[in-house]
Batch of 2 targets.
Target 1
Amino acid sequence: HAWAGYGAFDKWLTGQGKAGLFMFRNSCPPITGVHVVKDRGLCYAFNESVAAFLEHQDSIQNVFMVSTWRQAIEGRLSTEADVHLSRDESVRLFEHRFAESIKSLHRQGKRILVWEPVPGARSNVPIAMGKAEIEGRSAAIEIRRDEYRSDFAFCFRALDKEGGLKRANIFP
């Protein structure tokens, strides 16, 4: 989702006569101190190196945090690369580490902008649409707003706890 937003960020920054540095890792939420199950510690190492880099870059004043933010509710966040946590434990870990990541950036004087969770679809969009087309029906892939709010309640709670955040709303 960060990569998908790259063009929009680039256009927005260019229009303001500003520049940015784009850093992301696929399927890796931008928070420190967490592992993503089955990625061999790569997400953890990436986020720790980005955090160390930002800590020494006074010229970087704004940090955008973009992710699907789904990893916690999928039970994919953990304290170690090879340790599986329950969904609830994964969500609690997210809430704690998200707060710690935000506090660290605030201590560095960074302004933080968080892209709210991106609504997904009920299934793989190209496959569902192709199958529906063959069967002569519409693809039932949409997520209702109440489902979106419910699915990502954990993330909205974490965002609400952190004062001073600028939020990019998908659904106002």
Note: DSSP finds six helices and five strands in the chain.
Target 2
Amino acid sequence: KREGIQDGLERLTYATGLGALAYVQKQEAILHEASSKVGVSGSELPKTVERFFEEWKSTGKKVEQLSAILAEEEAKELMMESEKSGKYTFKILDVDVEMLMKIAQMVAESESGAIAIANKQGNLVCACGRKSKFMSNEILDEVVKKQG
């Protein structure tokens, strides 16, 4: 390995003899273990890892798109429920905090509707539409008193 000690001065560390042999054997063991995990030979490993990485990125984008659609549908349902009842809607969802925030943002950007949503981890978000008769802080106080 190479280390920069100070400007113009470098330290080189290298292995020779048995130390070099041990290093190469360790690297080969790592390569063999990685290739056996994905079920390919060592020479095919770079191409396979690249393919897995591309598939992983693609899957992440699809999950993000589906998450946005789910948030939009959940927000619509909650707003309709709130508008029909004339009250705010409280619901506990099985989603992460980012999804709670997305749903609340959509409600906040709407005309009416008022919601308080929580997840199973205990996160709570309140939102009201621009022309809603409710105030988020009042909903929050009421929900906290009721739910503890």
Note: The longest strand covers residues 114-119.
